[in-house]
Amino acid sequence: MAPSTPHQLSDGDAVFLSMETARSSGHVGALMVLDPSTAPEGFDFDRVVEHVTARVGLIPRFGWKVQEVPLGLDRPYWVEDPDFEIRDHVIRTAIPAPGTRRELNALAARLHAQPLDPTRPLWQVWCIEGLEGGKFALYMKTHHCLVDGSGGAGLSEVLADLSPRSEGPIAGADAYQEAAPVAPRRFDVLTRAVRNGIDRRVKTVGHARRGLASLWRGSREEREGAVGDVPVLPFNDVVSRDRVLGTAVLDLERVRSLKKRFDVTVNDVVLALSGSAVRRWLRERDALPADAAVAMCPVSTRGDARGLGNEISSMSVSLATDIADPVARLRAIHASSIVAKETVEAGSFDVLAAVGECMAPALARLALMGAESAPTAVPLPGNFVVSNVRSAPMPLYLAGARIETMIPLSLLQAGMGLNVTVISYCDRIDVGIVADPQLVPDVQELASDFERALDELELAAEGVAHRAA
Question: Are 23 and 120 members of one domain?
Fold first, then answer.
């Protein structure tokens, strides 16, 4: 382990901290429903506190907080929190028994809308009691600047076990051991701020080149699957602080069967279901545009390495909502995904990366606030975010209780009042849709459209097979 030194946030981590505004936050979350009957030693709030205390101690970063640089002239630093108290982060709450899924989703959405306390380590776990059937739920949230979910050390990976006996986390903690950071001296802050300011100028040139190259390719791109103009949809507007959550469950094997049938990826099928659900939602409101909706898809650039910081980019994929036939839509999305991946590999321009690497935090926050206030003043990079996360293919346990569902809750970006994130867990795909209620007031109806979209695609696939026969 390296000796203690000042630990400054990377550009990728700092930009998520800059997303903290009056309208939005930079944290992501998960809502888990737990079956306490499998816990050999019983299950209650005190057991959760004991379990979380033991596990977060394996990852030193969960005891760190952010120390800002004066006036936001440079990236913040991590420092140890001398007043760290586990009870500030593990909180007990309840819904009136017997609590339904609708009531649980409403509570999770309210908790998700609340920003994390910037004076403490940026994570929380809420233990929720009162669910029907005597079950419990955990809502946990972690700031994106603290942990990159693709790094494999999110709170769920740290807390989960492969058996009810709590034999150890599924994510090995050795790879995440970091030397305790020391508070930077004023001289260190000053010299690094000067050096980083020079680096930002160099990086600005690089991002400008990539931006011009992307514009040049876009003006000449006639290849099938290339993303065209991004239409403005009803949820592409000023985003408020409020959040709502819609959930759905899909059969993973049914999705895999479609993947094999059409020789595409699971992610292509997820995008096709997203496109079909949004297309139905827009048609029912007479808001379906002539141009196809576009999804922003996060892409990990980490490779096989393990770590905690953010190493992500994004790609724009057409959802082919201008195509009525579900199978033709899936094939169009597959073609668009191939083009998008090649564009990312060629070094495409990424707006969020450019903001983080070319602007001091204070300026980055001002730019993001401006984008929030006038989201359609410049062309949108996409209509909403679609993320696909893989979890364990076998049952997981937390403090002995079996994890039944694992609903993801992600963040909303400027001008995008809708986010779709899915997690593959065991034999299911849990869909979590976070939205601004002023822009998508009927989010559960949209979530239900995902289940209808799967039925629709399977029916269309049977028709294709019948015609081929």
Answer: yes
Q: Which of 51, 144, 334, 466 is catalytic?
A: 144
Nearest residue to 248 via CA among 21, 100, 452, 30: 452
Whether 169 and 310 map to the same domain: the answer is no
Least confident of 39-43, 234-238, 298-302: 298-302
Instruction: Give the tokens for residue 468.
Output: 């081929």
CB atoms within 10 A of CB 82: 7
414 falls within a domain: no
What average pLDDT does the segment 159-181 reach?
Answer: 77
CA-CA-CA-CA torsion for 340, 344, 347, 350, nearest 10 degrees?
90
Q: For residue 59, what are its two tokens? A: 């990852």
Look up 51 and say whether it is catalytic.
no
Higher pLDDT, 292 or 19: 292
Strand 401-409 versus strand 27-35 pairing type: antiparallel
Strands 123-131 and 136-143: antiparallel
* Pair of tokens at residue 344: 């990312």
pLDDT tens-digit series, residues 171-197: 655 656 788 898 899 998 999 999 999
Same domain flag for 321 and 385: yes
SS (HEC) of 156-204: HHHHCECCCCCCCCCCCHHHHCCCCCCCCCHHHHHHHHHHHHHHHHHHH
Residue 268 confidence (pLDDT) above 90: yes
Global pTM value:
0.91
Q: How many domains does the chain have?
A: 2
Please state the rounded mean pLDDT for residues 388-398. Answer: 91
CA distances from 54 to 58, 60, 62, 146, 242 (A): 7, 12, 12, 19, 33
What pLDDT score does 6 carry?
86
421 in a structural domain: no
Instruction: Answer yes or no: is 203 within a domain.
Output: no
What tokens appear for 422 in the block?
Answer: 């899915």
Mark whether 436 and 300 lie in a shared domain.
Answer: yes
Q: Which domain, by its residues, includes 260?
A: 223-389+427-468
If we measure between CA atoms, which residue out of 108, 160, 165 comes closest to residue 137? 108
Domain CATH number, residue 281? 3.30.559.30
Query: Domain check: are 68 and 140 in the same one?
Result: yes
Quick one: 175 and 227 in the same domain? Answer: no
**Using one digit for the tens of pLDDT, what is the confidence trace for 405-460?**
999 999 998 899 999 999 999 999 999 999 999 999 999 999 999 999 999 999 99
